[in-house]
Amino acid sequence: MKMQKEVVFKNAMLWANNPIRKIYGSMRIRDGKIAEIFHDGRNTQGADTAVDLGGKHIIPGLIDAHRHFFISAMGTLPGDASLWTSKHDALDAIDAACRMHQSDGRWIFFLGMDHTKWKIPSVPTIEEIDAVARGLPVAAVDISCHRGVVSTEALRRTSLKRETLRCKGDMDIRRDGSLNGLIWEDAIGRVLFAVCRESLLSCSDEEKKKIILDEADRCLKLGLTHIHDPGIPFDVQRIMKDAQQDTPLKMSWSVTAYEGLCAPPEMRDHEEAFHSDHAPKSVKFFLDGAHRTAASMPLTAGLKATYRAALDSVSSLSLWPFKLLLEQKIILKDGKLVLPYQRFDDTGELMRRARFFTEKGYRLVMHALGNVAAVQASEVVKTLGMGGCASIEHLLIMDSEGLDSFARCGAVASIQPGFIPGYADTIERMEIFPYLKAFPLKSLIARGVPVCISSDGPCAVDDPLHNIRRAVDRKKNDGTMLDPDERISEEMAVFAGTFGSSSSLGIRNDGLADGAPATFCIVDGDPFTDSSRVSQTWIDGVRVYG
Questions:
Q1: Three-state secondary structure call for residue 75
Q2: Cα angle vertex 460, ends 391, 344, to 5°?
Q3: Is residue 314 helix, strand or coil?
Q4: For the segment 261-290, what is each residue's pLDDT rounded down to a tens digit?
Q5: 369: how many CB neighbours lie within 10 A of its CB?
Q6: Which of 129, 244, 477, 500 has a CB 3.0–4.6 Å from the CB of 452, allowing a cystine?
Q7: Residue 204, class by beta-carbon neighbours within 10 Å (0-12 exposed, 13-18 middle, 19+ buried)?
Q8: pLDDT tens profile 458-492
C-alpha cells in the first residue's frame, strides 16, 4: 500500500509519549510522520482519510530484539517433534521419515523435542537412532535449540568430533568413553547450520529470498516492525541483506561464527560479514547454555530441591524426577551450589575476543542465562567501557548481588517473560525462591537498568503481545503467578517491547509522539487481553498489514 498524504485515526486508545501513558483521542499522520496526537472532538476535515477505530488501541511499533528469524524462516524444513511423548514416538517418527527419504540421502531433521515432559524422560541413544536411520543423517533438536540427539551419519556429515570442540562436554559420553548421541550448545549449533546449508543448496537465489520474505510477512501480521536475529553466519547474512529491499519489515542481526551459533566468532566472521542497514553492527557471544547454565544458589535451595525431587519420585513411583535433578553437574564453591557451565572459564579470553570486535565498532551482545554468567558479562561490559553499546540476554535467574553488579555495568537487559508458562514448573522445582529472582524485570527496572522484552522465538512463543502480557501477569499454565513480586505495569511492558528493544539494538525510537515516524500497530482490543490481536501494522506511514 502506498503512503497516504494524511490520515486521522479517531476514537482510539493511544499508548503515547515517553514515558508511555494512555490517551483516549485521535492521531493524525502526514507524509510518513505523526503530525499530532489530540483529544477527540477536533475537526478532522482536510485529511485524505478519517478512520473511526471505535475504541481500538494504537501502540508503538513492536520490536523483537531477540528472535531466531532465520531458523523460523526455515520452519518448513523440520518435522514437528513437539507432539512426541516418549522415546517410542521419537523412533517411530524417525523411522517413518527415513523410510520415505532413504533414496535421496537428505537430512532427517526434527525440531521442538522436549523429553523432560515425557512420562519416561529418556531420549533415544545413538545406537537406537542408527538402527532406524538407514544410514541417513538424523537430528532431533530440543525446543531450546541448545541440545538434541543425532545419528552417527549426522556426526560424520558435520565432521563433529568431541576432541576438536572448544568445550568437549558439548558431546555427552558414557563411562566407557563412547558417545551416547546427546549433544549440546556448540555441537548442536553446528548441526543446525549444517542442516540449513545443505537444504539451501538446492534453492535458487529467488527461492532463498522467498523463504525470508514469507517469514517477514508473518512477522508483520504479528505487529512486528523490526526484528533482530541474535546470531547468523555470514552466508545467511547475505541472504537476509539481499531480501531487505523487498520487505517493509526492518531486519537486523548479530554476527556469529560460521561454524555454529554457539561458537565464538573469529576474525573471518568479521571480514566476511554483511551488516544490516537498520541497526548498528553487533557481535554475539555465548557465556553459558540454556539447560546447562552458569548459576549459583544457596546450599539451602539445593537441599530443598533435592528433597522435593525425592518426594516427586515417591509420589510418581518413578526415579526420574530424582535422576533429572542429578543430571546437572553441581559443585560446592564458597558455600554455594554452583552449576559450572561457563563457556569461558577464563574471563580474560572472553575480554580479548570481545575487544577485537568492539574496537572495530561492534555493539556487544552476550547470552547469559544464569547469574554467574550474567556477572561475568557485566564485568566484561564495564571493563571494555561498552555500557551504552551492549545488550545482555536472558538473565533468567539473578540474586541481589548479581543484580547490583549488573546495574553498574550500564548494559541493556533483554528478557523473555514469554517463557514463564512453559518453564515455571522447572524453575519452581529448583527451589530458588526467595533466594533468587526469576525473569527479574521489576528488580532490574528498580535499579535503573534499561529493559527489553523479546521472544527468543521459535524456542518460545514468538507473538510479541504474548510476551508483554506475561511480563505483567506472570501467568503459569495453571493460571497462578511465578514470582509475582517481579510483575511490571502495562505501560512498562509496552515500553520494554518497543523503546527498550530499540535501546537493545542501539537505534532511536520516539514512539507515538508528534513528529515521530508513523510506525505503529492497531490492536482490536486491549493489548493485555489474551484474545486481542493486531489488526493493522504501519511502518513509516505505510500500512504494511491489515
A1: coil
A2: 45
A3: helix
A4: 999 999 999 999 999 999 999 999 999 999
A5: 24
A6: 500
A7: exposed
A8: 999 999 999 999 999 999 999 999 999 999 999 99
Pairing of strands 79-80, 62-64: unpaired
Are 33 and 3 within 8 A, CB to CB?
Answer: no
Please give the sequence-ordered ranges of beta strands (E in DSSP) within 55-202, or none if there are none: 57-60, 62-64, 79-80, 108-113, 138-142, 147-150, 171-173, 179-184
Whether residue 19 is preceded by a cis peptide bond, meaning omega within 30 degrees of 0, is yes
Element (H, E) at 49: strand 49-52
- Give the chain's radius of gyration (CA, Å): 24
Instruction: Report d(CA 30, CA 7) in Å as an integer.
Output: 7
SS (HEC) of 96-124: HHHHHCCCCCCCEEEEEECHHHCCCCCCC
Residues 302 and 308: their CA atoms lie apart, in Å, by 10
The answer to whether the beta carbons of residues 11 and 53 sit under 8 Å apart is yes
Element (H, E) at 443: helix 441-446
φ, ψ (nearest 5 deg) of residue 455: -105, -40
Are the CB atoms for 370 and 295 separated by under 8 Å? yes
C-alpha cell at 10: 479517531
Burial letters for 425-440: b for 16+ Cβ neighbours within 10 Å, e otherwise?
eebbbbbbbebbbbbb
Return the exposure string of 483-518: e unless at least 16 CB atoms fall within 10 Å of the residue's CB, then b: beebbbebebbbbbbbbbbbbbbbbebbbbeeebbb
DSSP run (H or E) holding 420: helix 420-429
Q: Which three cell numbers stand for residue 518?
A: 508513523
3-state per-residue secondary structure call for 236-297? HHHHHHHHHHHCCCEEEEEECCCCCCCCCCCHHHHHCCCCCCCCCCEEEEECCCCCCCEEEE
Contact residues for 267 (Cβ-Cβ < 8 A; gap 6+): 356
CA distance linking residue 57 with residue 54, whole number of Å: 9
Contact 15, 57 (CB under 8 A): yes
Quote the cell numbers at residue 11: 476514537
| Residue 32: per-residue pLDDT | 95
Q: How is residue 300 written as a grid cell?
A: 539451602
CA distance 326 to 324: 5
pTM of the predicted structure, to 2 decimals: 0.95
Please give the single-letter amino acid code of residue 81. Answer: A
d(Cα 145, Cα 196) in Å, to the nearest integer? 14
Say whether 172 sits in a helix, a strand or coil: strand
- What is the dihedral angle through the alpha carbons of 457, 461, 467, 469, rounded to the nearest 10 degrees? 170
| Crossing angle (nearest 10°) for helices 371-384 and 400-409 | 20
In tens, the pLDDT along 6-44 reads 999 999 999 999 999 999 999 999 999 999 999 866 666
Largest separation between any pair of C-alpha atoms in the chain: 81
- Could you count the other beta carbons within 10 Å of the beta carbon of residue 267? 10
| pLDDT one-digit tens code per residue, 158-179 | 999 999 999 999 999 999 999 9
CA contacts within 13 A on the Cβ side of 32: 5
